[in-house]
Every structure is written in structure tokens, then in C-alpha cells.
Amino acid sequence: MPHLFKPIAFGPLQLDNRIIIAPMCMYSAENGIVQPWHWQHYGNLSQSGAGLLIVEASAVAPEGRITHADVGIWNIHCQDSLGKLLQDIRRDSNMPAIVQIGHAGRKASCSRPWQGGTQLPPSDINGWNTLAPSAIPFASSDVAPREITKPEIHDLVHQFVAAAQRVRAAGFDGVEIHAAHGYLLHQFLSPISNHRQDEFGGSLENRMRLLLTVFDAIKETLPHDFMVGVRISATDWIEGGWDIEQSLELAQLLDSRGCHYLHVSSGGLSPAQQIPVGPDYQVPLAQAIKAKVSMPVIAVGLITEPEQAEAILENGQADAVALARGILYNPRWPWHAAAALGAEVKSAPQYLRCQPHGLKSLLRS
Fold first, then answer.
1. Non-local CB neighbours of 35 within 8 Å, separated by 6+ positions
2. Would you identify the CATH topology of the domain 3-364?
3. Which of 14, 185, 201, 353 has the greatest count of CB atoms below 10 A from its CB?
4. Any catalytic annotation for residue 183?
5. Is 125 helix (H, G, I), strand (E, B) or coil?
């Protein structure tokens, strides 16, 4: 069997294969509530044959949204809407599904990407005041964020825990804590965005404190059968920023705390980043971390071909691969990968005629 189609366990969660649907914001919610767009989008992806569906970044607080149209998980209404979405999806699919939870910090209050993606000032009807570890804006043209206070940090931890509890109550299998792409938890990790002088800034130990506190609090509060993973940017791609050496320290601490997987991306902290974009460009980061931890490691980033994904796993560079834009472009990517590599995926009976063994039924239809 190809490595890509071998089962894998993310802690208590069993996956049929190692193809992960990465979380991708749709910017189509209303007041944090998922809309009809999400029904057709996630219903489609749930029939893709992938091993795990990660629902888009869902804000733990209204001010933690990237845009006014982001999905939220800050109240019972958000919980109920996501729960109804999952219930409808699971009528026809048993694909495991989790939710990425996060807070955008200084990268909040933006317009949607197709409307420019730039920050909206608090005076805009869809804008608000942002907060961050330090009063340093993401872009020089942005309104500077307000430095978050220590009582607010305490509240933030509770917001993440409450979000995880709502995700579980909605029926999902777990959460992915979003500590990547320049959002709030990543902002605390990076010395570029974190200039604090208290126990949450300065040393590496201090800059990791918030993420580890959030992780520990979720693990302590949620039952053992609830999967908890983390997504990080392994490097800022900026000299003097967060880098792979610091990521290795963080990864080992998360591993020792019982993290169920680490999803390794990069960048997003500053417009000054210099990213060597190309096929597999983030895979060496995942490979370096995999060598130091026992938990599964997910590689992501311009992984587009089945043979490419299979080689990553066969060479031991990662334990699973995640697709984002590639699976938006081709929602049946796992089916095509299975055909190319000589494997099969689980599919709804209505689609069985598309599998190699279903060709006879196709001739009779």
C-alpha cells in the first residue's frame, strides 16, 4: 500500500489515510455564523476521500476575526451553527473533522482578500481596534494595535478553552490551535512582534508561555478522547525573527505535553519576509521537527502531485501531508492520487462507479 494511503493515528483520532485538508478561510460568515456557502463547500470536501477535514480558522472572540466575515466559535450561536453543519455533513460522510481555533491579533479587522485584504480602521463599519503583544502594527500603514494587558491574556486563555469546549459540544473530533501565519499566538512567539518586558516577552521561554498555557489549559479541560493539534510557522523568514531552532524547542515541549500532531507551515508575521516559494519549500522544516519529536508531523505548502506527496512520506520527511489551494482546485485530489498510486479511497455509494472496481457498474448505468 502506498504510504499516502496507510492509516495513521493523531492521538485518539484514527485516520484512514494521510491526506489532510488544511484549514482555509472562506470569509463568508455572518456575525461568526456559517452560511449556505459553507454547507456546499464542506459537504463537497467531505466527499473528497481525504483522511481529515480541518474546518477554517474560527475566532475565539469577535475581535479575533481576520475579517468581519470570518467564522466564529465565541458563543452558543456559533456552536449551534457549526454543529448543524457537521450533522448534515455526517449524514453522508464519516470523515473525521476538527476545527482550527485562533485569534488574529494585530492582523484582525481586515477587508476580505478579494476586496484588497488590507486593514480597515476602527472608523469603518467593518473595522475595529486590534490588540497584540506589543503596540507594533503588522504593516506601516496599519493602525497600531493596543498592547494586550495581563488580565486580558488571562481572559484570552479562557476564550481558547471555551472555544475548544464548544467545538467538542458541536460534535467535532478535535481542535487545531492556530499559532501560525502571524496571528496572535505567533505574534507572542516572535521577537519581531513581541517586545514585552513581562513574563510573556523577552526570553524564548517567556515568548512561548502563552501558547503553552493555552495548550495545557485545553488539554486539562477537555477529555482524553478529544484530539488537540497545533499549527505553527516554523520560521518568519526574517533574520532575527522566529526560526527553526526556536520551533524545535517549542515542538519538543508540545510533544512532552501530549500534543497529538504538529502542522508545520511558515511565514505570515511580517511583510518583510523573504520566502523561497517553490514545490516542497516547507518540507525541510517539517523534516527537521519530525526528527526531534514522537508525535505525527504534517507537511504543507505547494504539495500538488501524488508522487510528490508519496515521496515526502516514503523518505520520512513527514507523517502526513496537507493540501489547501490544491484541493480547492481539485476537490477529488485524493481520488486521483489513489488512482495514480494504485490505492482506493472511501467514497459515498453514489460515487462508487468512479472507483476502478466500479467500472462494471458504470457500463450498466
1. 28, 29
2. TIM Barrel (3.20.20)
3. 185
4. yes
5. coil
